[in-house]
Amino acid sequence: MTNPTSKRARFLWLLKMARRDGKASGKKLFLFVSSIILGIAAVVSIQSFGVSLKENIGLQSKALMGTDYKIGTNETPRERLLEIVDSLGGAAAREISFPSMVVFPDDKGSRLIQVRGIEKGFPFYGKIETEPQSAAEGYYTENKVLLDATVMLQMQLKPGDSISLGDLKVPIGGALKAIPGSTAFFSAVAPTLVIPYELIEATGLVQFGSRVSYDYYFLADDEMDLVKLRSDLRPVLNNENAFIQTHISGSEQLGRRYDNFGKFLNLVAFIALLLGCVGIASAIHIYIKEKLRSVAILKCLGASKRQTFLIYLIQVAVIGLLAGIAGTIIGLLVQQLFPIFLADLLPVDVQLIISLNVVFNGIVLGLLMSVLFALYPLMSTLYVSPLETLRISETLPQQSKLAGLVVLSLIFAFIFLFSYSLLDSTRYALFFILGLIVTFSVLAGMAQLFMKAVKTFFPAGWGFASRQSLLNLFRPQNQTLILILAIGVGTFLISTLYFTKDVLLAQATLENSSETPNIILLDVQSEQQQAVAATISNNDLKVLENMPIVTMRLHAINDKTVNEMRRDSVLKVDRWILNHEFRVSYRNALTDAETIQQGEWQTQLAEGQPIPISISDNLVRDAGLKVGDDVYFNVQGVIMHTRVSSVRLVDWSRMQMNFMILFPEGVLENAPQFRVITTQTPDETASAKLQQQLVQQFPNITIIDIRQVLTVLEDLLSKITWLINFMAFFSILTGFIVLIGAVKNSKYRRIRESVLLRTLGAKSRQILKITVLEYLYLGALGSLTGILLSLGGSQLIAWLVFDTPFVPSLVPFLILLPGITLLVVLVGLSNSISVIKSPPLEVLRSESR
Amino acid sequence: MPRLQNSGKFSKMTKILNISQLKKSYDSGSKKITVLEDITFSVEKGMTFSIVGPSGSGKTTLLGLCAGLDKPDSGTVTLCGVDLSSLNEDGRAVLRNRNVGFVFQDFQLLPTLTALENVIVPLELQGVKNANQVGMELLEKVGLANRHHHYPTQLSGGEQQRVAVARAFSNNPALLFADEPTGNLDSATGEKIIELLFQLNKDRGTTLVIVTHDMELAAKTQSILRLKSGKIVSTEAGATV
After folding, report:
1. Contacts of A387 in chain B (CB under 8 A)
2. Which residues of B touch A (CB under 8 A)?
3. Distance (Å) from the C-alpha of residue B183 to the closest C-alpha of chain A?
4. pLDDT digits over A363-407, tens only?
5. pTM more than 0.90
6. For residue range A753-802, what is the model confidence (pLDDT) as tens digits?
7. H/E element holding B204?
8. What CA–CA distance (Å, rounded) separates A458 from A445?
9. Chain B residue with minimal CA distance to A845?
């Protein structure tokens, strides 16, 4: 009696059969496996780098902040705040910071900078990096400043040169490369100047209306519970319009900012992975078709349905596992590039770590996705009859539709779970899936439409080669659809990046009209406005706007005072409103950035009636206000009774001064105020000249050159775009691997066809032409479909989200479209060269081996 | 040489294959085509039996039904004492693995396995431990021991068919089905294959059922079933043992 076969022995046989069969098919499957490898590499590189960054931010949190915790306020510290500071043992160091203009020597002009007046001792962790390094230690005692290194380079300044800051002329001690509390990103907009705390007064820059921040830095004992300290002090400090930040909360906040960007990049990488999986499904479909006969033979010899299914499932699983490992390793290597290319955007020096979690996820992802996407084609082995040994069938057996639905549901469930884990939101995960479905459907639909159009309007009058190449697109078992998807998705991603960048920049682009300001002058004192206006006129420029700014705080809303609201635990008003110093203006006309959403724009004052004010839509949301509410403001000690008469929709993205609260004229003219004046300069030279004159005469005025801000924005967008392009590139590469694999899989059929044509008398040129044209259509259609889909989407975003027209970049049309088409043609041609050179039978013999 | 343990009833049983009122038809577009109608016959254990008929007579369909590769519309197939309709597909697979061998017209070797690996598949399915040894012995018998490591694409047609014959006998089947075993071979090679089949039949007592259109081959078997248009035309005696 034969021993009953043990489970282990049966399983070992399955492994053996999977290995034996897989050995011969390795090359075929490897190509498609490469497509998931790239996707996994992209995902792992982003995730791994994100983990390293967060870890480093956490480890270096003290060095990032320079201290254990700090208390800060944006207004002159009140007595109570100073008492709180004293009760904590007094600050180890203080800082006073504000934006201002610095004037360079030798008529080199001026520049907006962030002044940081720091007391000796700070930073307590990390260090100030300067060139020369000795400047960091010496600047304080030598009464010198440290100026941003990039600005020094741009202005060709060196240590020892003097700069003018307000009323103070002071020598530069060294070039400032890094200091805790400043990042390269923000320094691009307003570079940092570090000055000894004691010299701030001498500059004369801290005046009424100046936007000054006061920070108190503290060192904590090892036993101090900073989390508890923060939660205890926050309500107390809120009352004094101050805040507390610990090195822990600071680094968490920073981590969250980079988190969001990382999530976005992960999604881009995930799309590359999904594309690879589409390739896997296609490859396994073709692979299994070729294995049908073997499955039938095995069943004939006595293998069960389960056994034959498992043999190929094991193959797919092993390959998926190997792909996961390979992809993870490549991802970990690729992440080495990020710190190099993103140095300017990162807050810390990133020491890369290998997270076991990320490694595990990468490997499991490879395994899971290979099996999931191969499942449906694999299931056809269950339905193969052993009778196929007697008959040869070219088509896959009929499968259960229910099984297909189940597999599809599993796939969508997985995609949802993965995107949920990235986005941490059900809504966004569902939107992502919807976006994917729409993208793939539109691409597939356009491909089908094209094929239908070709069939309907078939150019019967064309030459043989041209007609044959078109016919090849919809031959039985063609791969037109899969190739268009593969090429289309990658092109779509990259084009979207270019178009979206254009939309974002269009948002910030200035309209080219003489009424659009590109220079904004802040902190102009009332008594200076005429002289400032005169300076502007002397430069043959117009004063476009001269807006008064009055500062005030909220006193009460309806019958509740601010103090009562502070004590109210179920308050609907956002806390920041209760502590905020509003900068309010007054006028009798709306600007073109404003439209009335609710109520009426009122400018008439009635004796004994509350003053009608207009508030912005975001204030309505945050303060829970509505038209008709009574709002009381404390204007420099005077309580004003106002009533909300209208709500304005404000376009905050416009580069101009907008206000949350507007008073009518005739109320605040006598209140202490300062001015904001705008003008337009025709070019950079005129701008530099005006700025120099203004800063020399009025050192307290802050000048914002919008042209310069846009340049910084564009530079920043370019850096971010580079990274996104890099991720999208994985998609393109994946698309190509799918393409190469699909071409190789149809190789034998094409060769037979080409050989037959040769036998019938076709010349090499004709065979080549057929191939070239076929791939030309595929490449052009795939990339054009992707670009057009992207163009449509970007136009919708511009209309619906930004309400701005946009002129699309030509790069996708001029570079991507021809470039990708050419590559597709070259890949296709690589298949056919052997046919051209050799006799037909020789080709057939070599291919059948 | 390991021998499958029969259940006991085989040794007593005289009829190893019993076909009763078999009917089979296929859908072709909108029409239903009857391929076999009212087929009844039986095969004695150890005999050689051929099914002959012109192209389209239903020979291959009948073979498929006899071997449990397909299900009839009506009628019964009793193979090695087991009514095939009482088994599901896996059950029929197991029955085939233990009792049946196959030789096909186009060899039907697994292209990704070597000659030896092809031969021992039925044994491995049973979990036989010394499958390799058995396989080598069989290959020796068919004269291909020195080609055991070659793949089917490296073997000629005749060599591939010899490997297929070795595989067919590897599980010591009670019954061997051969569908046009010499159809893709030249006459000299074909004769050698037939010689091999009959020799192994003689040595092991395996019942041999051959489907063929070659009357010379059919004449070598003990019993000939003639089919025409899906019906039995005659059953006649062939060569005497």
Report:
1. 64, 69-70
2. 2, 4-5, 60, 63-64, 67, 69-70, 89-90, 93-94, 96-98, 102, 104, 108-113, 117, 121-122, 124-128, 151, 153, 167, 171, 179
3. 13
4. 999 999 889 988 988 888 998 888 877 765 545 566 678 888 888
5. no
6. 777 676 666 777 878 888 899 889 888 988 898 898 888 888 887 777 66
7. helix B187-204
8. 19
9. B153
